[in-house]
Specification:
two-stranded antiparallel ribbon; alpha/beta
């Protein structure tokens, strides 16, 4: 398959073609980050900030301990919830590695506590509607198609909320891949809260294997309105070294043929792969120390 997007440089193009053209790589796995990598924004941040501004997202007690107010309810002078989230994300950075993102990723996932999974899916679909500004990266779609066409499996390991990432894949990514193969819902690992159904609790793994798997996999929101997100995050925590943990939990000592990501938090898993591709979202951006020197570069 040809790579036609003009963002590819010739050295990167040759290296990627050598991966897809090597029959020995058929059946191996390439792993992708999602936010900023496959799409040009952070889907969970977009859903959370939009819901907050629209008054669709309340605050649990742990938000109040951060000094955050419900829109139009709390005393004046308290911080805006989404601005607080961004401040936490930037609060602890060492040598370019954003340790603060671990706290902020869990916080934004917990912000949906009390909502149904169906509600979260609908909020996600709303920001994915045409004209709302969430876009795929065409060059990465080309790469995904080339990998799938070559028999290389694709897995997504994201620090975003699993339900937001799966919905975005279902709505705007997989339709562009379907003649080559798609990224199946069970191939997405993200940050997932424990779910409450009636008097019981279920993890993402249990939902994917249970009697409601079909609706859950297909993001059928109407069938998931009684599945309630809780404030408890189940593991693994898929950021930074946690992405390596998620990979090893699923695949043991198997080595990814390629890891594609846009940020320092992808560096640890990049170092586990045979090849790495760094999606540089700003042409003037210096390479983060966590990104391997050997990583290929795509200027997105």
């Amino acid at each position: 398959m040809s790579f036609l997007d003009d963002r590819w440089t010739e050295p990167t193009l040759q290296a990627l073609s050598s991966i897809t053209d090597d029959a020995a790589n058929s059946g191996r796995i390439a792993v992708f980050d999602f936010d900023g990598t496959i799409i040009d924004t952070d889907i969970t941040e977009t859903v959370a900030s939009t819901a907050w501004r629209n008054g669709d997202l309340g605050t649990e007690s742990f938000w109040w301990t951060l000094g955050v107010q419900d829109p139009g309810v709390g005393p004046q002078g308290q911080r805006d919830a989404f601005e607080t989230y961004l401040q936490i994300a930037d609060s602890d950075t060492v040598d370019g590695y954003p340790f603060g993102h671990q706290a902020s990723s869990s916080l934004v996932a917990q912000a949906f506590a009390g909502m149904s999974v169906g509600q979260v899916i609908r909020l996600t679909r709303a920001v994915l509607a045409p004209g709302e500004g969430v876009r795929v990266r065409p060059a990465i779609i080309e790469l995904l198609r080339a990998l799938l066409s070559s028999g290389i499996q694709v897995r997504v390991v994201s620090a975003g909320l699993t339900w937001c990432v799966r919905t975005a894949l279902h709505e705007i990514v997989n339709p562009l891949l379907q003649d080559c193969g798609v990224v199946e819902p069970e191939c997405v690992t993200g940050i997932t809260p424990l779910m409450r159904v009636g008097q019981g609790w279920l993890t993402d793994r249990q939902m994917l294997a249970g009697p409601r798997a079909s609706a859950y996999r297909a993001c059928e929101d109407a069938d998931l309105d009684d599945v309630i997100s809780t404030a408890t995050i189940t593991g693994p925590f898929t950021f930074g070294g946690g992405k390596v943990g998620a990979w090893r939990e699923a695949f043991g000592e198997e080595v990814p043929v390629l890891m594609v990501g846009d940020g320092a938090g992808d560096g640890p898993l990049m170092r586990e792969a045979d090849h790495a591709l760094w999606v540089r979202t700003d042409r003037g951006q210096p390479r983060p120390a966590a990104i391997p020197e050997s990583a290929l570069v795509l200027d997105a």
